Hints:
Blueprint (H helix, E strand, L loop, with lengths): L1 H16 L5 E3 H7 L15 H16 L4 H6 L3 E9 L5 E7 L3 H12 L7 E3 L2 E13 L4
Parallel strand pairs: 1-5
Antiparallel strand pairs: 2-3, 2-5, 4-5
Family: Belongs to the TonB family.
Keywords: Cell inner membrane, Cell membrane, Membrane, Protein transport, Signal, Transmembrane, Transmembrane helix, Transport
Protein name: TonB family C-terminal domain-containing protein
Amino acid sequence: MKKLLLILCILFTSISFGQDGLVLSQQNANEKGISPIWPKCERSRQTPVQCFDGKLRTHIIQNFEYPEIALNEGLAGTVTVEFIINKKGKVEVLDVHGAHRYLQREAIRIIRAIPKMEPGKWGNKPIAVAYEVPITFVKPE
């Protein structure tokens, strides 16, 4: 009886936690073809992965603003932002490291401004996909 109870507890625990917290890395999602779809990428001639990468680069360039205080203090460097596109298609910043905190704040602002998109899907279930993006701040001359 105790063995049966133990087996049932383990079985129900694994079922209740199965795939709810699943997050794929960008590389794994790209390999499996389950990347999030950036707005208007569904009509693109590019693959969803190519379109996502291009739109992300464009988004960073268009939204980039060198912080005034960082300019005044001569700050430069590379900030790496780790984030996910969650199961609802929204951005969640997980970690930021590198360079000065003023530059980190700007990098976070840029990433948080990413538009809501169609989340990656595993079969028919939405899934979170993790990304890591370096943003380099070079002080203008």
